[in-house]
Amino acid sequence: MVGCIMEWQLTSESDFMNRHWWLIVLLFGVFVCGQTAVPLFAAEGDPIVTTRQGKLRGKRVSPGVLRFAGIPYAQPPLGELRFKPPLPAQPWDGIRDARDFGPVGIQIYDNFTGDYFMNQSEDCLSANVWTPGIDNKRRPVIVFLHGGGFLLGGANHPTMHGTQFAQRGDVVFVSVQYRLSVLGWLDLEGLGGPEYKHSKNAGLLDQLLALRWVQQNIAAFGGDPGNVTLMGESAGSISATSMMLMPEARKLFHKVIAESAIFAVNRTPARATKVTQEFLDETGAKNLNDLLALNTDEIREAIVRLILRLNLKEQVFFEPVLDGDLLPKDPWKYVAQGHTKGIKLLTGTNQFETQFWLLYHRKQMRLRSRRILGGLLVDGLEVKPVDVARMFGTVQEAYPNRTKSDIYMDMLTFELFRYPHIAFSEIHGTHTDTWMYMFAWKPPRLHGIGAFHALELPFVFNNLGGWERILGDNPPRHLAHDMQDAWIAFARNGDPNHRGMSNWPRYRKEDRHTMIFADRSQLASDPEKNLRIPWQQLWRSRSER
Fold this sequence. Notes:
Layout: H1 2-6, H2 13-27, E1 48-50, E2 55-57, E3 59-62, E4 65-72, E5 95-97, E6 126-131, E7 139-145, H3 163-169, E8 172-176, H4 181-185, H5 189-192, H6 202-217, E9 223-233, H7 235-243, H8 247-250, E10 255-259, H9 269-283, H10 288-293, H11 296-310, H12 331-336, E11 344-350, H13 358-380, H14 385-398, H15 404-428, E12 434-439, H16 457-460, H17 468-471, H18 477-493, E13 513-517, E14 522-525, H19 529-543
Parallel strand pairs: 2-5, 7-8, 7-9, 9-10, 10-11, 11-12, 12-13
Antiparallel strand pairs: 1-2, 3-4, 4-6, 6-8, 13-14
């Protein structure tokens, strides 16, 4: 991965400023370069399963693990169905081939995604299932929503294959593809009328329909529809925690694992409408028919132009919209009122999320951190300049040995990732069991870079092969086992404690117990308190304005 990343050289500060939103998109994504696919395990006879829509032919991918891939949970959102809420998949005759993955959603081509996301289509609404067996057992179910900033990514990458979850934990693992960018999050109610009311959250409705499909069909795969854990990373975690805010969704799952992001708090209908108009301006579309006539290449090109033009003006271009209908307008108030009560939560972040940027252009970051990163705080996240200056001084006083760029990255990590998780856990933890973690393992091959965004994924999925350039030749397998076993235990019984890690208390404001995952994982009380307290004060002062 590092070799691939370092091939993208930025030639100037303006080049960086024009392209750094690409980095934010990638920061919300996953490892996508340099890994080799895991060979499939040969077996005699392909497994057949019967769902409500029809029969599926799967594949044995490892001893004791069957995989069914590219299963349609919705009708293809093509033609007049583009931008509309998804419709349930129609039945089929005969046996449908589910041995290979389906296409990912339409997205921007990027040097870092390799070949894994080249197979793209609007007909992307499918699920993948890994199971230990097609029998009458009722195993815990994990449904995974991938990251990618709602612009990139897919459920097919080898890092996120569920083989190890099924094999090690005797669970049924499901990954879901959903519509990305303008096809899943464009506000077209003004152009198309009431039938496009939910176009701005169509991607969220894709995920909701996938959860309904799980409820209706997972028993056929040996899973328990009464024990479903919704798991997401980055954009997928935004989606998973957004589902906690939806009454219609909450009856479809029972626990949530939220890695490195929570629900959007500033994506109002007005902001969604603004981004939609910007996209319409890029395409020249005057009406709905013009939009429906665009081909996928034209859509991609318009997205690229939109990102480069808006630059720092939007934090994330497309994400769930707080419309007051599907999602409440004030998520914090909604959670405080106890509406998410009963959904057990395992949540956390990586210690240095935004150091992901150093993989791209360390020199630019080191020399121009104030303009680039400070500008992002002010222009992209709408933090007042006086608050940026004050917080910089506070962090510098707490950590005098940190470089200027490190301090700005610490500030971004807390603003974008760490403190939102802390605030959410504080509130949700008052009425429902909540556990907090921090992933702090340092990659040995990347000197001066810590646990950046998405680095936990190979460990959580216990898929360490292929990442030698980052993880080294001997990554700590025990860390992967500890993390995956905690995720499995939480999915099984709502508590991440397990035989190898049995001292992880719930998160409470009084002690703020946090499991620090590293070479030697250990429990900490209120880690990075010197950052939490000033950030808590900043958030409170902003909420009072």
